[in-house]
Amino acid sequence: MAKTRQFVSGETIIRENDIGETAYVIEQGRVKVTKKRGGRTVHLAELGPGGTIGEMSMIDEKPRSATVVALEDTILREVHRDDFSVALQSEADVAIHLLQVIFERLREADARIAELASYVQPEDEITQNPVSSADRGLYALLEAQTWDAEELLPKGGLWIKKFPFRIGRNSSDPLVHNDLSLDCKRPYQVSRHHVSIIRSEGKIGIMDRGSAWGSAIDGEQVGGKKGIREPVFFEPRGGILRLGNEDSQIKFHVKIEQKVKIGS
Question: What is the domain range of residue 242?
Answer without folding.
Answer: 138-258
